[in-house]
Amino acid sequence: MDEVIRDLLKSQTNIPLSPFELHKLSGDASYREYYRLRFDNGKTFMVMKMPAGPSSVSEEITKTSKQIDELPFINVQHYLKSLSLPVPDILAYSKKDGLLILEDLGDVTLEKTVRDLPSAQRTAWYQKALDLLALLQKKSRAVPPKDCVAIYRTFDANLLNWEFDHFLEYGIEDRLQIKVPATDKKKFAELTRTITKKIVQMPQGFVHRDFQSRNLMVQNDSLRLIDFQDALMGPLLYDLVALLRDSYIELSPAEIEGLQEFYVKKIDNDHPYHAKIKAIRNDFDLITIQRKLKDTGRFQFIKTVKKNDSFLKSVPASLRYVKQALERQTEYAELLQVIGKYLPEFK
Questions:
Q1: What is the pLDDT of residues 53-69, one digit of tens each?
Q2: DSSP labels for 200-250?
Q3: How many CB atoms lie within 10 A of CB 120?
Q4: Under CATH, what is the fold of the domain 2-103?
Q5: What is the pLDDT of residue 26?
Q6: Nearest CA among 228, 235, 195 for reference residue 73
Q7: Could you give the 3-state DSSP secondary structure of residue 24?
Q8: Which superfamily does CATH assign the domain made up of 110-346 to?
Q9: Taking CA atoms, which of 51, 67, 143, 274 is between 20 and 30 Å from 252?
Q10: Residue-wise pLDDT tens digits, 67-84
């Protein structure tokens, strides 16, 4: 890999060649491998190594309506950069070797920054994240992703329902080593499909898909955006839920409400949710139910299939979010009962 990197630096960049070292970094649940490229003079870059095969296309289950030959990470980065959004620069790329050399944004995530802060300081950082989200939504509405892979991928009913079923298979059956009776499976499907119908009717737009504290890098007191390769078109509030219902940083109900109010003030007058805090809170709950059940299933899937159990500690928070949302959405009391009989976290 050292030789490939030297060739890339020489042929695609103006970076002076000098001795360097590669240090492998943790990639969480990703199939991608990450390295820090460190030169003798202290200058650093990131190296992303893509896996061979289908897993190089997307980390998430998504159907693309048009064949895209370009790597999704590069494709989406070009779109976001064209909107002057704070994404890392791509310095070089070898398709043959599945290797990218990127700007190094450091190791300080929003998660690390806010974890031990008092509420007021933590809220200030989340307000910065909401500033960035509002800007992303404003710019992507003004210049829709015409040539971006995101326009050919949607959070449609099939995907939403697949994710609900993924929770049932992995979040309950695999995690608890039980079999859910057919009657409860049928009732679960009926109830979750009604939520899906509401989600697909919500205002739609460009969605990062994983706009959360581990994908927001802190640099010079500002936030930079990473892990955007799975972007698609979906409910506008999806990224708001991903941020405020983060599985890694648990915000209090008061903090959530305050940040929802901040968000509604930051979005522009043309935004579909402008001055609609009640609609935001209602749709936020429904997306929370779907997203956090999906996360619960996905965390168990990562443990079972990828042999990585590091995400299981985030299951209790994810299910607390679901329970709180279901308790507010009283028309789904039966769903709370159906899954509650199996989940120890709901007892």
A1: 544 444 555 667 777 77
A2: HTS-EEEE-S--SGGGEEEETTEEEE---TT-EEEETTHHHHHHHT-SSS-
A3: 7
A4: Phosphorylase Kinase; domain 1 (3.30.200)
A5: 77
A6: 228
A7: strand
A8: Aminoglycoside phosphotransferase (APH), C-terminal lobe (3.90.1200.10)
A9: 274
A10: 777 899 999 999 999 999
